[in-house]
Amino acid sequence: MDDVKLDTWKNALSRIKYTLKTTESYPLTLHNGLQLEHEMVHPFPVRCITYASVKTGQQFVSHLGSGSNTQINIWTIANAGFTKKFQRIKIQSIVINHLTYVAKHRVFVGFCQDLYLRVFSSVFDELSRALCPTTVLSVFYNEATDEIFTCGVGFISIWKFGNKINDPLEPGRHIPTTITPEQWVTGFEIYPNTEKLLAISGDGIYVLDYYHNEQVNHFKNWHDLSLTCCAVYRPLEYIITGAKDGPIKVWNLMVYSLIHTFHGHLQSVTGLIVHPYEPLLLSSSTDHTLRTWRLDTFEETCRINVGDAILGMKLLNTHQLFYYSKDIIKVWNLNHFHSVFAVIHSHVLRMARATSPNRSSRIMVFAEDGGVRLLSPTTSNIITTLFPLVNNEVIEDVTYDLRFNYLFAVLKEGDVLVFDAQTNPCTAIQIWKHESKDDTVTAVAVLQTDDAIAAEYLEDEKVPSFSLLFAGLYNGQIALLHGTSSKMENVQAHAGVITRLSVSQRDVNGCEIGRYNRLVSLGSDRAVRIWRINVIHPDTIYLSSIRSILLDGIPTNVCMMSNAVCLSMID
Fold it and tell me: 150: which strand partners?
């Protein structure tokens, strides 16, 4: 065998660096929300579907056909990668209405059209059968007790496995309930982290304690039409119900009082799933939509129109779910790469991180309701609030000086209102008025000199420490509004109105432009300019432009970290 020669890491690294420098870069889009991963199409309408997690991967089992032409389709999606294996099994003259997988015994249990409850092997050989007295509407395996629960019109039955896997299922214990003979019990849901099971009927939910063998509660249906599904959110003790009328209702589980109603679905809700770790609710409906809702803000965050009436869905793991319609199964990735940091209860217009030497940093949030909140970046707690202004005053821009605890708000007329942020709520202490239209303030930003000035450019190599409040003006100039005792001549930054000022976040290990905090300006002239802060002596500073970027459209907001600039445009 010939010797295999491997290149050195030094040579490989130099090639990687060369490729990165010479390859054209493209915009990067981060997709959020449900993303389709797999789909399994059926040639005929599906009768029932179940899911099994096996050693080789995720297994989706469906039953379809009629008469003597019935079959089982099995798709296995490998754990590693996207390999999908398909297997078709013919089962003569057996029509399965409901099917579930029993992981402990590695068998399938199905209720068939001839009223038999059959146990099948992993390749659907019949192992045993037990006759049911009447039609079953749902088959559910309770892993905690190793029992099969079935339900139908006016009953809930429990079946237990025999000593051998070939032994027929045997009728088990009876749980006394208040279910009447005319009530349709259509399914079950696990009550998480308890020894309880929820039995769903058209007119309510029955809470069953399967260890103490008793019914412990009953929740009446307050929807306009029959209940179809439910879910439980344990952190806040919510029970969530869906029905044929479309709205999803959130109830307090302790007193069963209505907390909130999600409006969106226009037809019957067929599935409700609560994420095990995030405050997320997933819902499906026959109106062809799959929706995601937040249980902390009660907002709809995602809606997918799938083009099919969804008959049911199930969460596979923390990041995947599948749903099925009459002729297709689809697997979706939740693609949930973020979590809620703070609830503001208003559309956020602008955010900025405020820092200052020897002070805990703050997050400034400016919202659509006209209010400004200062948040702790570690706990997300609101430290203080600037309430919306009275007398129809509108805030156009705002910035925060953490060193002196001042908030500077630019009013619509171009004046600047100064607030003391040491109190809660903030207190107005001054107003700075402009003298002419050219002096109208359109944008403001606070920059701390500590991380913005290179020590090697100073005579004593000692960086001064103070705050600088810059203002963008109507005439396109940048002015120094406040800087302790410092002065600066106005700089003609843009050929149009300055629409935004921002301060970058430095990277001490970055390149020259990103190693220090920079002032960034946006203008109606479609230009982005990056400025260096220069100090002649502590009383005199000036700005020098180090980068200028001309855009195709008008920028509305900017964020810069190290040497990377992110922009939002007016369109």
Answer: 139, 157
Look at the pTM and tell me if it is higher than 0.70. no
Local structure of 438: helix, strand or coil = helix
Q: Which residue has the tokens 């809930």?
A: 156
With H, G, I as helix, E, B as strand and everything else as coil, classify residue 79: coil
Separation between Cα atoms, residue 531 and residue 189, nearest integer Å? 60
Contact 93, 76 (CB under 8 A): no
Tell me: pLDDT of 32 over 70: no
What pLDDT sits at residue 8?
A: 78
Q: What is the largest CA-CA distance in the chain?
A: 97
The residue written with tokens 């939002």 in the block is: 568
Cβ atoms 497, 551 nearer than 8 A = no
Q: For the segment 261-303, what is each residue's pLDDT rounded down to a tens digit?
A: 999 999 999 999 999 988 999 999 999 999 999 998 898 988 9
Can you tell me the distance from the alpha carbon of 58 to that of 562, in angstroms, rounded to the nearest whole number?
A: 43
pLDDT (0 to 100) of residue 69 = 78
User: What pLDDT shows up at residue 200?
Assistant: 96
- Cα 535 to Cα 243, 466, 513, 552: the distances in Å are 68, 12, 17, 34
Which are the contacts of 161, defined by CB distance < 8 A and separation ≥ 6? 105, 146, 148, 167, 169, 170
Amino acid present at 548: S
Give the DSSP H/E element, type plus range, for residue 13: helix 9-22
Residue type, 317: N
- Positive or negative: CA dihedral 78, 274, 49, 115: positive
Going from the C-alpha of 219 to that of each of 30, 153, 187, 224, the distances in angstroms are 42, 18, 15, 15
Please say whether the beta carbons of 149 and 142 come within 8 A.
yes
Helical H segments across 431-563, by residue range: none
Q: What is the pLDDT of residues 58-95, one digit of tens each?
A: 999 999 987 667 899 999 998 765 678 899 998 877 89
Residue with tokens 């059926």: 42
Specify which residues 304 forms β-bridges with.
Answer: 290
Q: Are 362 and 376 a contacting pair, CB within 8 Å?
A: yes
Name which residue leads in pLDDT, 459 or 159.
159
What CA–CA distance (Å, rounded) separates 557 from 570? Answer: 9
Round to whole Å and give the CA distance between 470 and 543: 11
Tell me the backbone φ, ψ of residue 437, rounded to 5 degrees: -65, -35
With bands split at pLDDT 50, 70 and 90, how would you rate the model's confidence at 1? very low
CA torsion angle 94 97 98 102 (round to 10): 0
Average pLDDT of the chain to the nearest whole number: 89
Strand order from edge to edge, sheet including 107-112: 96-102, 107-112, 116-120, 126-131
Calpha distance 55→500 (Å, rounded): 56
For residue 283, which of 202, 227, 229, 345 has the smallest C-alpha distance?
A: 229
| Short-list 327, 292, 321, CA closest to 307 | 327
User: What's the pLDDT tens digit per position in 478-503?
Assistant: 999 988 778 899 999 999 999 999 99
Q: 14: part of which helix (H) or strand (E)?
A: helix 9-22
Write down the pLDDT at residue 153.
95
